[in-house]
Amino acid sequence: MEKSDAVTALSALAQESRLDVFRLLVQAGTDGMPAGQIGERLGLPSATLSFHLNQLRQAGLVTFRREGRSLIYMAEYAAMNALLGYLTENCCQGDPAGCAVGICDPSTLIDAKEGIRQ
Amino acid sequence: MEKSDAVTALSALAQESRLDVFRLLVQAGTDGMPAGQIGERLGLPSATLSFHLNQLRQAGLVTFRREGRSLIYMAEYAAMNALLGYLTENCCQGDPAGCAVGICDPSTLIDAKEGIRQ
DNA sequence: GATACATTTCCATTTCTCTAGAAATATGGA
DNA sequence: TCCATATTTCTAGAGAAATGGAAATGTATC
Q1: Which residue in A80, B39, B53, B78 has a CA-CA distance of 20 to 30 Å to A115?
Q2: What is the domain-level CATH number for residue A20?
Q3: Do residues B45 and B26 share a domain?
Q4: In degrees rounded to 5, what are phi and psi of residue B40?
């Protein structure tokens, strides 16, 4: 992961509404959640929500698919894991004994056990 | 960890110079590094560096101690671990099989193996 | 094609953040 | 006490981000 990508992802999460949205989508799992439902749950006007969803999308932290009239947003677990990896990358002078990298991906549990980063 | 604390910590890290400073201190370990040396390494004017160090300090991500004329800054590993925990907290609907929380602390390797969060 | 619905884009306003020179503060040594 | 060093606080200007109403876009249904 590049430094600029990390800053973009951290900036995207460093805002109360967006952190709420992201965590909601992390909870929602691979099913995702339509934009309208997100706005309803968090009490955000549609234009405001759309702005924040766009920020999260440009940071690579969420993706979406269309289903009828709705856009279903879902968390991008790989991006979250890459960010966690970046933050802990230089930790403990590379000693794995004191440094366990967090991995979280409901769709690839097998990969998670092997470790995503090589 | 409170949501507002998480936003503060993420905001602190969501800036190129501060991310550089934090990672440098994570590398430096418990010895820490004097402010002057940080500024020299990253090419930051003293007032600018001081502003960023203050942001990191207010976010609880770094602490400092005085040694003679120098202020030695060091990473607060517990705060970083708390943030990683917060981001992955609602992951995988609580299923521990797909969700391992990252832990990193050179000074408490034993605690790390037990897991810091209860 | 007309209408309803879901969501986005446009826009202006307000608010927060970054930057770095200059002055102030704290410490140590002559 | 006086000077050098290390770092902070003060300050103001420039730039970026957040907000939400109104209008536009895309999709489905009749």
Answers
A1: B78
A2: 1.10.10.10
A3: yes
A4: -65, -45
Report how many domains make up chain A.
2
Is any atom of strand C within 7 angstroms of residue A15's beta carbon? no
Spell out, as residue ranges, where chain A has pLDDT lower than 70. Answer: 90, 92-118
Residue B26: list chain A partners with CB under 8 A: 90-91
Alpha carbon separation from B97 to A107, B57, B100 (Å, rounded): 12, 35, 8
- Specify whether A63 is located in the same domain as A7: yes
Query: What local confidence, expressed as pLDDT, does residue A47 receive?
Result: 96
Q: What does R_g of chain B's alpha carbons equal in angstroms? A: 15
Q: Which residues pair with B104 in a beta bridge?
A: A99
Whether residue B24 is predicted with pLDDT greater than 90 in this model: the reply is: yes
Q: Do the chains contact at B88 and A84, CB–CB below 8 Å?
A: yes
Domain that holds residue B86: 78-114
- Does residue A99 share a domain with residue A67? no
